[in-house]
Amino acid sequence: IQTSTTTLANGVEMPWVGLGVYKAEAGNEVERAVKSALEAGYRSIDTASFYENEHSVGKAIAESSIPADDIFLTTKVWNNEHGFNETLEAFERSREKLGVDVIDLYLIHWPVPGKYKETWGALEKLYEEGKVRAIGVSNFTDQHLEELMKIAKVKPMVNQVEFHPRLFQKDLLEYCQTHDIQLEAWRPLGQGDLLDADPVQRIAEKHGKKPAQVLIRWSMENNVVTIPKSVTPERIKSNAEVFDFELDAEDLQAINGLNEDRRYGFHPDDFP
Ligand code: NAD
């Protein structure tokens, strides 16, 4: 169901929809979620050292019948792991926990002031050595990206940010498109809060789809990669069934009307 991909600036294929596992508990909960996702056809998992479940994600991948090479695996360097050597060490810890040779996408989780440029140097080294297939950032504003680009030898291929109809970051989306940086949406469902917003429900009924599917489709139609989280097998499966319908201009206009620059998470300048 879920094979459609976008091509990153360096030619690497990244699935449009992946499973997010923030707050999916290490052990049974996240293992079951990852296995259900892989069975449902997902080929992309988004974790982070901060989530403290990389080991379980790795275990679920190893125990599944899907070759690890077919799975696009993202992890991230956390705020207290910044710095050149520190990041190289953090990467090795993540890689060991995940139990894979190569990570598909390694991201700087938050733009820690005064530190992220040095950290970027470590990501470039990992990329040049072939230990990661692509490198990118998360929670970067266009100003952070401008700063980073001044020193970067390799441009970030992805920027993963909070993005949903209530926080339709149009300027950032345009900036990223201009620079061939793939935007990726975190919290695409507003952690569930957006599911009963009026136009979302109405549009879901109109297409015979679920509200979550409408929100995920909305991201994709804006050329934004999406990583909805669920640990419920039926919801995991249903969240990826978004390739059999399209939102029309009227739907898009109604959903875009929800924008109020509202964040459910931190602003990039107030990272945790
Ligand atoms: P989300 O918007 O994906 O919402 C997840 C919640 O929505 C679930 O816990 C569940 O309660 C509900 N839900 C999911 N599918 C549903 C369905 N079909 N029907 C009804 N309810 C449903 O929120 P999120 O987990 O915060 O974001 C998704 C992923 O983004 C995370 O798991 C993580 O991988 C990533 N993320 C990254 C950052 C970052 O700083 N880079 C921050 C937050 C999240």
UniProtKB/TrEMBL annotation:
Active-site residues (renumbered): Y51
Positions of the NADP-dependent oxidoreductase domain: 28-259
One Pfam assignment: Aldo_ket_red
Annotated positions for site Lowers pKa of active site Tyr: K76
Record carries keyword NADP: yes
Tagged with keyword Oxidoreductase: yes
Cited PROSITE patterns: ALDOKETO_REDUCTASE_1, ALDOKETO_REDUCTASE_2, ALDOKETO_REDUCTASE_3
Keywords annotated in UniProt: NADP, Oxidoreductase
Domain of life from the UniProt record: Bacteria
Family the entry assigns: Belongs to the aldo/keto reductase family.
PANTHER family noted in UniProt: 2,5-DIKETO-D-GLUCONIC ACID REDUCTASE, NADP-DEPENDENT OXIDOREDUCTASE DOMAIN-CONTAINING PROTEIN
Protein name: Aldo/keto reductase
